[in-house]
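A.,

Following up on our hallway conversation. Structure tokens first:
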């Protein structure tokens, strides 16, 4: 049995606003808009589906996800852009290898992390 990542699904009360956040602040690209008002994004190779709650699904649906980590070659510029865009910074720290990281809150309370590109 083999497995590989298919997508990360973010559910939002405002899929367009959420998609715009990932495009404007983290460099995602819109791959497609879906018939139900959602979006398929490419977040640097990570497929993201962004939708509202889906009427045809019968399981309990919630908004958000735990966290997504993204490398950046400009940690200072990225954090500055996030702050200027109103993102809530949760923590700026370093990981064991000395790489600087910043945890911040995206739409619907999703925790995101940007990491300084490894040397």
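Then the amino acids I'd put at each of the 119 positions:
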């Amino acid at each position: 049995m083999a497995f590989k990542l298919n997508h990360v699904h973010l559910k939002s009360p405002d899929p367009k606003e959420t998609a715009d956040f990932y495009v404007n602040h983290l460099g995602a690209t819109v791959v497609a808009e879906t018939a139900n008002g959602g979006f398929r994004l490419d977040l640097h190779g990570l497929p993201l589906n962004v939708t509202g709650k889906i009427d045809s699904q019968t399981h309990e649906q919630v908004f958000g996800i735990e966290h997504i980590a993204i490398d950046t070659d400009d940690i200072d510029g990225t954090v500055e852009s996030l702050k200027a865009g109103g993102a809530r910074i949760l923590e700026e720290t370093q990981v064991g290898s000395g790489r600087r990281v910043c945890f911040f809150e995206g739409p619907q309370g999703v925790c995101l992390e940007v990491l300084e590109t490894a040397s």
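The mean pLDDT is 87. Curious whether your intuition agrees with the design.

B.
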